[in-house]
Design goal:
There is one protein chain. It is built from 6 helices and 14 strands. The protein is α/β, with parallel strands linked by helices. It has one domain. β8 and β9 form a beta hairpin.
């Protein structure tokens, strides 16, 4: 990770000199910085959902490569093999050429920062301040990453969805006036690339009597096979009307295009809390004990463990507040 520790007014000057914030021990600040550096990437990885290989199987670490773009080859549709008579040339009479196209994945820089006052360190202690800073920066970077990922999965590019017409994948369900989106997809539907792991810069600000601390990461997403993604649209907020039938239809659409499942034999789905509630309410009304099947064998990071809802109709579902919400229905 590219990390720096310095002082904007005089690189290398020790805290505690004349005219400098001498009430905070320099060694404590250095130790606090070192802990933030060591913990940020770990906390980020435990709080981000989409980059997990069980959700997006195509992961490209490109930190050591030149450039900010990954060119991903995609095999075009091909025909089944044909019946070949004896002694007939397969090529060219029965050619089934391997043709590929390319998807370009470009990474983007995401950043967040906080100002640490000397009073915060004096009164709260370096341990408390370190924990709060790491959590704040890691959560901000993780949330930005997942928001960008869901936008890309549903619309093909980062950026807020202008309206429901921005969704460029197959869709089931319909919202009224304002819509929330969730999805069911194959783990092979998209790709993720990471250029810079979460990194920290920290500089002293003598005028403000504290330290400017920033966290950055560079990553990105791309739709690889949009036909392997099905969006589910529901009325926004607590009026969410996602149904079991919508899930069944989404699964049927994926199976009809031979979308591959994950290693567990299931597709991947993500719901927001109100959509999860709507499905649980419908399942509870059946009165026969039907519902999400727990998935205790799931292996992943901390957020996957806490966000896992369970399995339903061949889909392993996760929960996220970072899906597009409140989108105008065109």
């Amino acid at each position: 990770m590219a990390n720096n520790y310095g002082y904007s007014y005089n690189v290398g000057q020790a805290v505690g000199g004349d005219g400098v914030t001498g009430s905070v021990d320099h060694t404590n600040i250095q130790a606090m910085y070192s802990e933030i550096v060591g913990d940020l990437a770990v906390y980020f990885n435990n709080q981000v959902l989409l980059p997990n290989p069980s959700i997006i199987a195509l992961n490209y670490p490109i930190a050591s490569a030149a450039g900010n773009t990954v060119k991903i080859p995609v095999q075009d549709v091909y025909d089944p093999a044909e019946l070949v008579p004896e002694a007939k040339d397969i090529i060219p009479d029965y050619a089934n050429d391997l043709n590929t196209s390319a998807v370009m994945l470009e990474v983007a820089k995401r950043g967040a920062g906080t100002f640490i006052t000397s009073e915060a360190v004096e009164d709260g202690g370096t341990g408390v301040v370190t924990s709060q800073v790491v959590n704040q920066l890691a959560q901000a970077l993780a949330q930005a990453t997942d928001i960008a990922g869901f936008q890309t999965l549903l619309a093909g590019a980062e950026g807020a969805l202008a309206d429901s017409d921005a969704v460029n994948v197959d869709k089931v369900g319909a919202g009224t006036t304002s819509a929330d989106y969730c999805l069911v997809m194959s783990p092979q539907a998209a790709a993720y690339a990471s250029k810079r792991a979460p990194s920290v810069n920290m500089d002293a600000d003598i005028n403000a009597d504290g330290w400017v601390t920033t966290g950055t990461t560079r990553n990105g997403f791309a739709q690889v096979r949009p036909e392997f993604i099905v969006a589910m649209e529901s009325t926004a907020g607590s009026a969410a009307d996602v149904t079991v039938e919508h899930i069944a239809e989404a699964v049927a659409k994926l199976r009809s295009v031979n979308a591959p499942t994950g290693a567990d034999g299931n597709y991947v789905g993500v719901l927001n809390p109100w959509q999860e509630f709507a499905l649980n309410k419908e399942l509870a009304a059946t009165g026969n004990g039907a519902g999400f099947i727990p998935n205790p064998s799931n292996i992943g990071n901390q957020v996957m463990s806490t966000a896992t809802i369970g399995t339903l109709m061949g889909v392993t579902f996760y929960r996220s507040n970072n899906l597009p919400q409140g989108i105008t229905v065109a």
